[in-house]
Amino acid sequence: MSSEMDFGVMLSTFGDHASPEAFRRVATAAEGAGFDSVWAGDHVSLPAEIPDEYPFSPSGESPFHVSQDTYDVFGVLSHLAAVTDSVDLGTNTCIVPYRHPVVLARNALTVEALSDGRFDFGVAPGWMETEFEVLDVPFEERGSRTDEFLEMFTRACEEGQISFDGPHHSFQETGFHPTPDDDGPTIWLGGKSGAAFRRTAQFGDGWTIFWDRPDAIAAGRERLMNAWTDFEREGDPEVAVIRATEVGDDTERDPEKPLVGEPEKIVEDIEAYADAGTTRVVIDFYTTDIDEQIEQVERFGDGVVDAF
């Protein structure tokens, strides 16, 4: 197989199926099956009122409910750093404006240190307005607060001790130790807006998106490369797609969907993603049953990951 591709597994930190045991089982299964990373989403709170504006559902209906367990993503990844050895551990995506930037930088640098440099820092401005209300953060400032943090975090990783004067936060010289080796965590930006592509080119190493098919990935990457050129970036950005999978000839899912069907068909799907510029495919699941998720991880590892 000529294509180079990284593979990841999406871990849910909220929902009825979320638990410390589930996190450990799925993460260690992914590592054992040859995956490169384990990523998890971020919510601080699930309010009773959730807008029907979920960006990854055609109907806008979200899968969240106020009664669901909700785990802190940095606590989960710190826990997994102790029970894994090789897989990268990442946020996909951390909603930047939810936290004070100094606190968020400390969270990120802690996971980076505890994992011996295996942290992937996926970030985005967020979408759930009622969650912003719970946290007393102005929803309309989410973009500028994300830019502010990325500027501050880049400096903190490079310099170790900085003072900062931004549009939303200012502080005297303070330390961000332990500072990471090299350039710090890989930074991924989520979203499809022009601002998302600009942020990726200005601050990031890669772009990440949910569910898109290869043609949409190719179109998004073209927009990203325009921004990449504007900022005179060298090399090529990473591109990740998160997509639910169901491996096997016993699936009742639509076989025309990417990553659904027998391994040979899924390998062809991933080749199409690679041709579109994708460098990492992160699998999600159609099921919340942890045993079934692990079975899918193992099937994908044996039949797909090993082909690349």
Automatic annotation (TrEMBL):
One of its GO terms (molecular function) is alkanesulfonate monooxygenase activity. Pfam families: Bac_luciferase. Gene3D superfamilies: Luciferase-like domain. Residues 5-252 form the Luciferase-like domain. GO terms for biological process: alkanesulfonate catabolic process. InterPro entries: Lucif-like_OxRdtase_Rv2161c, Luciferase-like_dom, Luciferase-like_sf, SsuD_RutA_monooxygenase. The keyword Flavoprotein applies. Keywords: Flavoprotein, FMN, Monooxygenase, Oxidoreductase. It comes from the Archaea. This is Probable F420-dependent oxidoreductase, Rv2161c family. It comes from Halorientalis regularis.
